[in-house]
């Protein structure tokens, strides 16, 4: 089994204490099915890709992802997703934050001083509920991270004309309103490039999931 292609972000790669990756569409795996089956088929190649991308030895900490605005602190990776959460923050170097998306944005948050990281699933509902703002507050409350010390990176996500709402600018605006100065958006639309990305809308719900990964090293 070959690894999936991996995308990286320059704004995060310059931070020496951090490893970030965005796992793209995996060739040769049938995902024209329900979410649970697709995720089960993707698991082994996602784990292998993560290991090859520098996350070997780190278990995934995963959120349940219910399209809400709950952000949870995680100190250890459990066998089950964190219930009710769409965002995770940590200061642990023994795990890897993982978020699955297929049109929604994965939003990476990193403290420039290396104190903590966060990873958020922000679709239309989560963006409307300002989950990124909640994640910034959580990092400040739990780890003393000042918003001005944070770097925020928005992953590929669905954008107009393939979707009636442009969530990426709204996410960026929330981060800036919270005091983050260093905000980056890759500008890529998942629905525009079927060879690289899964898209829930374009593929009418029967598709795989892209995987956002973030860890302190």
Q: What do you see in this structure?
A:
With 217 residues, this protein is an alpha/beta fold. It has a single domain, classed as 4-Layer Sandwich (CNF1/YfiH-like putative cysteine hydrolases). The protein contains five helices and eleven strands; from the N terminus they run βαβαββββββααβαββ. The chain has helices at 10-13, 35-55, 124-128, 131-143, 167-177; strands spanning 6-7, 18-23, 60-62, 71-73, 87-90, 96-101, 105-111, 117-122, 150-154, 182-185, 210-216. The strands form two sheets. A six-stranded mixed β-sheet has the order 4-5-8-7-9-10. α5 (167-177) links the parallel β9 and β10. The radius of gyration is 16 Å and the shape is globular. The two termini are 27 Å apart. The mean pLDDT is 96.
Largest sheet composition: 6 strands, mixed
CATH topology: CNF1/YfiH-like putative cysteine hydrolases
The percent range for helix content is: 10-25%
What fraction strand?
15-25%
The number of helices is 5
Strand order of the largest sheet: 4-5-8-7-9-10
CATH architecture: 4-Layer Sandwich
* Strands, total number: 11
Overall pLDDT confidence: 96
In CATH, what is the class?
A: Alpha Beta
Total domain count: 1
Gyration radius, rounded: 16 Å
Oligomer kind = single chain
Q: What low-confidence regions span 5 or more consecutive residues with pLDDT below 50? A: none
Encode the helix/strand succession as letters: EHEHEEEEEEHHEHEE
């Amino acid at each position: 089994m070959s690894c999936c292609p991996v995308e990286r972000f320059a704004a995060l790669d310059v931070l020496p204490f951090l490893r970030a990756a965005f796992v793209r569409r995996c060739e040769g795996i049938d995902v024209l099915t329900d979410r649970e089956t697709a995720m089960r088929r993707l698991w082994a190649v996602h784990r292998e890709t993560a290991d090859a991308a520098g996350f070997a030895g780190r278990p995934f900490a995963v959120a349940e992802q219910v399209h809400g605005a709950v952000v949870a602190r995680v100190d250890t990776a459990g066998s089950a997703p964190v219930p009710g959460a769409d965002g995770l923050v940590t200061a642990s170097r023994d795990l890897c934050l993982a978020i699955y998306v297929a049109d929604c944005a994965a939003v990476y948050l990193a403290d420039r001083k290396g104190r903590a990281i966060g990873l958020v699933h922000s679709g239309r509902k989560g963006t409307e509920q300002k989950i990124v703002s909640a994640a910034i507050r959580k990092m400040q409350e739990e780890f003393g991270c000042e918003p001005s010390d944070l770097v925020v990176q928005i992953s590929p996500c669905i954008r107009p004309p393939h979707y009636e709402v442009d969530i990426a600018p709204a996410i960026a605006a929330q981060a800036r309103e919270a005091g983050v100065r260093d905000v980056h958006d890759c500008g890529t639309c998942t629905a525009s490039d079927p060879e690289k990305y899964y898209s829930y809308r374009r593929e009418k719900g029967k598709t795989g999931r892209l995987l956002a990964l973030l860890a302190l090293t």
